[in-house]
Amino acid sequence: MSSTKPWLQSFAEREAVLLAPYAMFSVESTGRTHPESDHAYRGPFQRDRDRVLHSSAFRRLSGKMQVFTGDRGDYHRTRLTHTMEVSSVARTLARALRLNEDLIEAMALLHDIGHPPFGHAGEDALHDCLKDEGGFSHNQYALTVVEELEERYPDFPGLNLTAETLAGQRARANKIASRSVPLLETQTVDVADSITYNAHDIDDAVKLGIINVGQLSRVPLAGEALSVVQSRFTNLSAETLRATLVHQLIDMQVSAVVAYSGPILKDSPWQNHRDVVAAQFQLGMTPELSEQKCQLERYLYQHVYRHEQLLKMRRQGQDQSWELFDHFVQQPHLLPLRFAKRIAVVGLRRAVADYVAGMTDRFCRQQYELHCWNSGS
Ligand code: MG
Predict the structure, then answer these.
(1) Ligand 1 mean position to 110 CA, how many Å?
(2) What is the architecture, at CATH level 2, of domain 11-26+43-373?
(3) For 31-51, what is each residue's pLDDT tens digit?
């Protein structure tokens, strides 16, 4: 890989210096569905990241809820800010473990791009609507978005991402069915995702009064984080205590992954990314800490995600998704032209789901009020 100018360091030269042997190197990419020539100085995974960042589906993440809706003020995370936080944690892990940060960033920005409106409630509704057509999964829909629905380049449909970025998303979509472990870069995004949402869901839930720090401290991992914070600071305001607790939770877990997996990788005989995959190495933290993390997730499930206020919002989001879906199935002539054209390719019900899934929460609610509110349909 040569540079266009002698002073310009190529991405291959940069990676040769920065990455560990077990990382996924750009020069080893198996390329794109529609072949393209290399950019003069942006690596293939850097270009993937930029394509995801500039996609319209990515921008719409700002209007999609993570756990809490906009009815509850503006403090809490949206799907976009969650994605940026995942990217931040994943890039930290990438550098510490000397993995391919560009690939990790591309996959992190992509990982939730397929979320329909109203979070998992909307996903469950669309899955139910398509139960006879193979169901709906946001991870699978992300692939549809970047391979088919985004129209931004004259030479190809979708974003024409590299095989590695797509494989990372495919691994998410097939996680339960798959027996093989994916690239370390893919695993890093997965680990960063769960560390991030546990921490920020605690932050949002405490801020919104769904749970309090006292209750949370009875869960071992949160209790330990709180002890560390209280050993360093006294008389913190409730706001600062909450923020410091969340930072501590993230730092403890990210550091635990680096401390546990780093030495194994460093001392391993693995000379390339294929060796790591063949060895079925799973990135993570100690089994004890993993169990504590599971306890924290069970607590969040019971006390936050199943909270009556959220269940009510969830039912409302599901009902609106169902009704809007039925409305467009009954009146497909009201679909925007590009989704009407998809009926011939993927069938009516899938084409309608592809349209509804791309909506923001606000647009979905507007469409519901416009088409379904008084129609009784
Ligand atoms: Mg996520």
Answers:
(1) 9
(2) Orthogonal Bundle (1.10)
(3) 999 999 999 889 999 999 999
